[in-house]
């Protein structure tokens, strides 16, 4: 009796040491996340002090944290190709995504520093919490990009979501913010629940949550196709919610309307990029034609989601009257483009997707910085408020023009390159598979660029074509000017020399 | 390497940089820099034109002169091999006339813009950007580079019309932008299809290790690579895909199995995919030409644009459409070009007649001229569709001649508008009495445009008609009635010009009472002479000595028609199976 117990304990101990060993072996790959967690705790602790100097230092502490993670990711090659248990994989994609997320966090803080509403609030009121939550959100994004296990995906998404809910409510004295926050929480929890439900189906069908395993998909092949499709749709509902793709985009305009501008910029890039990477990992199995053929329903569903997202995003944007809502639907349409790219099975689209996301990061932050300046300094609330502003802010106006043209996808800006790469992949996939869906996506995607011009051009239209009484110049702070240039410059560089970035991404992925 | 062509393209951009650095209040300085930049560009263009060797052209595929070829963007996309975008410019008989025209009209446009007072710096900056992109369009031999310049034309134009235009300028600018953008999106689809289908044999040879770096490939080696490609013995990873237009012109460079390969057998709406692609690019360029029924943006844009911008629009921007058809659409899709020749020719004839009828109905002089542009650009389509040497030469001649004459026409409209702030035909009568010199130039411009012998327009129309008459025998394109109907267009153009002349300029002097207050009806100023005299002389010179241009274009056009007819016939034979299924 005692002997068997002893045997049992010994077995357990052996298992435990094994588990601890593998945790320790993989822990090194989690260095960026650990660093983020440490800085998060540091910020929360520092926030307890009443000293004004410390309060003033908080954003810079957060910046230091993000920056050190960025440097770590850019320099350290050893992070790649390590697996943490069967939950997180630190490969080239995760590393590049981590770099993008660190940049997202840094940009968000830079924008927040320029935002009088956030910076000039009564001292000590949730300042530390704001910056700490940004770090937590970035941490969640990193986990999302690394997850190879459905449960881990769920946890990571929840980390991001919870941080997002609170960040939306940063300016809780504004009625709009409260409305946005409430809507976001309601939609968010619902979609999380639905996603979890779908995941439980998957677990039931396959007995595994590791969707990168071939065995996961093999056992799905034996399951009832209806069940698989239902489960996939439920899970994708959660994913699509995160990237604000139709038909799960309804929260987008309201949240964009209510959240502080830096947070809107963050939402339009960070979670979207992470969500796309989650989907990218999920559908990677479809590169295998036998699996792809078996799950053509899922592909069709994704294809239709991409089409609907593109259509809803672009056409609804046409009727918007405020720049925030316009950008909300623009962000929906970009989700559509990214989804479309993910469907180009058979072509090597990862590089293109990462390139597109990089460009999206710069142009969205640039545009939101411009909108933040317009809103806070010049009281612009609707598109009409831009009337005749162009000659008064020539520099910022031209920068805004660059961002908008890049968002439309016109040369000579990087947005065009991103679209060109995506379209090329879709064309290649169409050549290889002959699926009509891909051709439809390609044609719709390209033609909607024409529609996109129609709404993006509205801002320059009011800025430059409409006339105003006064021509008196408005002052723009130097830091804002520099930031605008900082966001605009890569758009030109990545158009004229996209290979610089493409080669680098390739090297990371190799 | 010779950098003449790059200097042609980037001189205006350089001038734009100088303008950017000048303080806003130095208006004269800004104008002077712009004028200097465009004059330099003209000087280089004239030098290029004079030194261009029109006889050296072997065929349409090689024989570009002053070629500059630099690696620009190159990246590999996983298993798809390498993609290559080059800075690849060159000039041949098709583009040489357009380059000269751009130089001339560029200078005239600056002189015409001298009276601009509102936001001078912005205006001339955009003007110079526009000049760079138009010139780039005419010289680019890489599709991507071409597309870049092609799209970049839209933006300056949008603002030039939208900010400095007339009362409905916002509407007209947006309409122009959307129309042409939709057109260029059609072109983009096909561009993507083409570059994923076509390899650069030389670069592929290098990638395969058959050829050292920086060694020019021999013709034999290129043939060998093309053969290997068609036999499928080149690995995917070794294929270097390219945007080069000359490479796209050779059917042997298409990757077997790619959708636009002749043998692909892919159909869409019961047409071979190549034909669908042809129709898409055709539509893209037809919007720019513009041809009926996608011409509706043109009258709006012209009416609202300020005079110098109307001049640029009519004289050079429209030419990009016709030029694109000759440079890209027909050589790359010769089979479809031959197959659809009646359709294209028919659109040409439709434009000629419909444009002329609309012109006849217009009360606004500027609208009349805008529609006359539609009508004249119809001749370009007709000549091109005939695929005869005369017809294509005529099409190019028509673009050149229309560039000179339409510039003049829009300038003379500008003259009356500057004085009376009105240009309705019925509001004026007997202007000849008050403005004799002006009337003389109007008569010259109108007669040159309606094709009076002795002016360049006559040569162009004659060549096009000769080509389209002889096409049924010589190339088997176009039914004969098209040439006959096109002649009616000539008659109509005589009608609307002469009628306008009679109503506005002859008879007793009278202007609409409400205009009398503000109108100062005086004859031409020195600045206006400076613009009109050179254009009138050029229209005359090119009308009397057509060989000046034809000597330059002739060999290239022969190469073009031979290539299109030969490849077109071969590929059509292959596609017959699909077409008659």
Task: Write out key terms for the chains shown.
heterodimer; A: 510 residues; mainly alpha; two-stranded antiparallel ribbon; 22 helices; B: 581 residues; three-stranded mixed beta sheet; two-stranded antiparallel sheet; 24 helices; globular
How many DSSP-defined strands of chain B?
Answer: 7
Helix content of chain A: over 70%
Which two chains share the most extensive interface? Answer: A-B, 42 and 42 residues
Assign an overall shape of chain A.
Answer: globular
Number of helices of chain A: 22
Total beta strand runs of chain A: 2
Would you mind describing this structure in some detail?
- The complex is a heterodimer of chains A (510) and B (581).
- Chain A has 22 helices and 2 strands.
- Chain A has a two-stranded antiparallel sheet with strand order 1-2.
- Chain A has a domain at 295-510.
- In chain A, strand 1 and strand 2 (88-90) form a beta hairpin.
- Chain A starts with a helix and ends with a helix.
- Chain A is 77% helix and 1% strand.
- With 510 residues, chain A is an all-alpha fold.
- Chain B is mainly α and 581 residues long.
- Chain B has a domain at 340-544.
- Chain B contains 24 helices and 7 strands.
- Chain B has helices at residues 4-21, 27-51, 93-112, 120-139, 143-152, 154-164, 169-195, 201-208, 219-231, 245-248, 273-288, 297-304, 307-332, 334-339, 341-361, 365-386, 389-420, 431-434, 436-450, 456-474, 481-505, 513-516, 526-544, 547-579; strands spanning 65-76, 82-91, 240-242, 267-268, 271-272, 428-429, 510-511.
- In chain B, the strands form 3 sheets. A 3-stranded mixed beta sheet of chain B has the order 1-2-3. Chain B has a two-stranded antiparallel sheet with strand order 4-5. In chain B, strands 6-7 form a two-stranded antiparallel ribbon.
- In chain B, strand 4 and strand 5 (271-272) form a beta hairpin.
- In chain B, helix 3 runs antiparallel to helix 13 (307-332).
- Chain A: This is NADH-quinone oxidoreductase subunit N.
- Chain A: NDH-1 is composed of 14 different subunits. Subunits NuoA, H, J, K, L, M, N constitute the membrane sector of the complex.
- Chain A: InterPro entries: NADH-Q_OxRdtase_suN/2, ND/Mrp_TM.
- Chain A: It comes from Pontibacter ramchanderi.
- Chain A: It is an enzyme of class 7 (translocase).
């Amino acid at each position: 009796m005692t002997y068997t117990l002893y045997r049992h304990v010994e077995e357990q101990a052996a298992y435990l040491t094994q588990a601890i060993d593998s945790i320790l072996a993989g822990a090194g790959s989690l260095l960026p996340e650990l660093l983020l967690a440490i800085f998060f705790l540091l910020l929360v602790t520092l926030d307890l002090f009443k000293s004004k100097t410390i309060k003033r230092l908080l954003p810079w502490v957060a910046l230091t944290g993000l920056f050190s993670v960025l440097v770590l990711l850019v320099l350290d090659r050893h992070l790649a190709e390590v697996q943490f248990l069967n939950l997180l994989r630190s490969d080239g994609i995760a590393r590049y995504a981590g770099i993008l997320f660190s940049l997202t966090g840094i940009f968000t803080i830079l924008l927040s520093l320029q935002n009088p509403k956030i910076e000039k609030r009564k001292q000590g009121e949730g300042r530390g919490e704001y910056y700490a939550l940004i770090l937590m959100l970035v941490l969640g994004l990193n986990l999302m990009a690394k997850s190879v296990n459905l449960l881990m995906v769920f946890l990571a998404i929840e980390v991001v979501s919870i941080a997002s809910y609170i960040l939306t409510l940063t300016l809780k004295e504004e009625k709009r913010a409260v409305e946005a926050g409430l809507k976001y929480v309601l939609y968010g929890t619902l979609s999380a629940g639905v996603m979890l439900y779908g995941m439980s189906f998957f677990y039931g069908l396959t007995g595994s949550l590791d969707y990168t395993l071939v065995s996961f998909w093999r056992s799905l092949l034996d399951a009832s196709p209806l069940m698989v499709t239902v489960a996939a749709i439920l899970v994708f509902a959660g994913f699509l919610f995160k990237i604000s793709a139709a038909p799960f985009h309804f929260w987008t305009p309201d949240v964009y309307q209510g959240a502080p501008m830096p947070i809107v910029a963050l939402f339009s890039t960070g979670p979207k990029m992470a969500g796309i990477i989650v989907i990218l990992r999920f559908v990677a199995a479809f590169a295998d034609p036998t699996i792809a053929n078996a799950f053509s329903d899922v592909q069709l569903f994704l294809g239709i989601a991409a089409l609907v997202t593109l259509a809803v995003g672009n056409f609804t944007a046409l009727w918007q009257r405020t720049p925030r809502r316009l950008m909300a639907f623009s962000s929906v349409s970009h989700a559509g483009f990214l989804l479309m790219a993910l469907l180009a099975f058979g072509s090597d689209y990862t590089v293109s997707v990462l390139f597109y996301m990089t460009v999206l990061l710069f142009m969205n932050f640039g545009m939101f910085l411009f909108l933040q300046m317009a809103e806070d300094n010049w009281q612009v609330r609707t598109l009409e408020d831009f009337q005749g502003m162009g000659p008064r802010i020539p520099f910022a106006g031209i920068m805004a023009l660059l961002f908008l043209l890049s968002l439309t996808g016109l040369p000579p800006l990087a947005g065009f390159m991103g679209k060109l790469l995506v379209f090329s992949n879709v064309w290649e996939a169409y050549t290889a598979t002959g699926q009509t869906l891909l051709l439809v996506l390609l044609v719709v995607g390209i033609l909607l660029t024409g529609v996109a011009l129609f709404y993006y051009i509205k801002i320059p239209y009011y800025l430059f074509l409409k006339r105003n009484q006064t021509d008196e110049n408005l002052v723009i702070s130097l830091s804002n000017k520099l930031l605008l240039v900082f966001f605009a410059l890569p758009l030109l560089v990545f158009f004229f020399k996209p290979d610089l970035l493409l080669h680098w991404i390739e090297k990371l992925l190799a | 390497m010779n950098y003449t062509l790059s200097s042609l393209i980037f001189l205006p951009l350089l001038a734009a940089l100088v303008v950017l650095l000048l303080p806003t209040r130095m208006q004269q300085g800004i104008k002077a820099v712009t004028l200097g930049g465009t004059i330099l560009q003209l000087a280089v263009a004239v030098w290029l034109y004079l030194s261009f060797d029109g006889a050296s052209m072997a065929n349409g595929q090689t024989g570009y002169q002053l070629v500059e070829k630099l690696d620009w963007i190159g990246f590999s996309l996983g298993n798809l091999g390498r993609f290559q975008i080059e800075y690849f410019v060159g000039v041949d008989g098709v583009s040489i006339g357009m380059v000269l025209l751009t130089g001339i009209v560029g200078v005239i446009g600056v002189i015409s813009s001298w009276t601009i007072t509102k936001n001078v710096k912005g205006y001339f900056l955009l003007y110079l950007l526009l000049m760079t992109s138009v010139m780039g369009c005419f010289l680019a031999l890489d599709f991507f580079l071409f597309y870049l310049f092609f799209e970049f034309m839209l933006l300056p134009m949008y603002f030039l019309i939208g900010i400095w235009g007339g009362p409905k300028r916002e509407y007209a600018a947006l309409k122009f932008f959307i129309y042409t953008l939709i057109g260029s999106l059609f072109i983009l689809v096909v561009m993507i299809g083409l570059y994923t289908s076509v390899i650069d044999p030389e670069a592929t040879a290098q990638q395969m290790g058959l050829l050292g770096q920086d060694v020019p490939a021999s013709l034999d080696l290129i043939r060998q690579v093309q053969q290997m490609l068609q036999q499928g013995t080149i690995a995917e990873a070794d294929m270097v895909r390219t945007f080069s237009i000359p490479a796209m012109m050779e059917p042997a460079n298409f990757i077997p199995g790619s959708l636009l390969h002749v043998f692909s057998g892919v159909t869409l709406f019961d047409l071979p995919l190549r034909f669908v692609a042809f129709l898409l690019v055709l539509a893209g360029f037809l919007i720019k030409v513009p041809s009926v029924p996608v011409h509706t943006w043109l009258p709006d844009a012209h009416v609202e644009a300020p005079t110098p911008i109307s001049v640029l629009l009519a004289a050079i921007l429209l030419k990009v459409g016709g030029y694109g058809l000759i440079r890209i659409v027909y050589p790359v899709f010769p089979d479809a070009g031959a197959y659809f020749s009646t359709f294209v020719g028919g659109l040409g004839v439709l434009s000629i007649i419909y444009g002329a009828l609309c012109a006849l109905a217009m009360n606004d002089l500027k609208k009349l001229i805008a529609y006359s542009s539609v009508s004249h650009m119809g001749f370009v389509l007709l000549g091109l569709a005939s695929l005869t040497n005369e017809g294509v030469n005529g099409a190019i001649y028509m673009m050149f001649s229309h560039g000179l004459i339409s510039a003049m026409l829009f300038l003379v409209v500008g003259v009356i508008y500057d004085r009376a702030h009105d240009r309705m035909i019925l509001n004026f009568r007997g202007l000849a009495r008050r403005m004799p010199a002006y009337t003389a130039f109007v008569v010259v411009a109108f007669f040159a445009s309606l094709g009076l012998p002795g002016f360049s327009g006559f040569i162009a129309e004659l060549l096009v008609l000769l080509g389209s008459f002889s096409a049924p025998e010589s190339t088997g394109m176009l039914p004969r009635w098209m040439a006959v109907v096109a002649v009616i267009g000539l008659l109509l153009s005589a009608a609307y010009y002469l009628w306008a002349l009679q109503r506005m300029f002859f008879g007793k002097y009278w202007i609409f009472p409400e205009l009398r207050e503000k109108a100062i009806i005086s004859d031409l100023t020195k600045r206006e002479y400076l613009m009109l005299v050179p254009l009138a002389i050029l229209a005359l010179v090119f009308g009397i000595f057509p060989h000046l241009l034809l000597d330059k274009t002739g060999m290239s056009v022969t190469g073009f028609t031979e290539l299109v007819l030969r490849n077109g016939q071969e590929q059509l034979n292959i596609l017959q199976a699909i077409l008659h299924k």
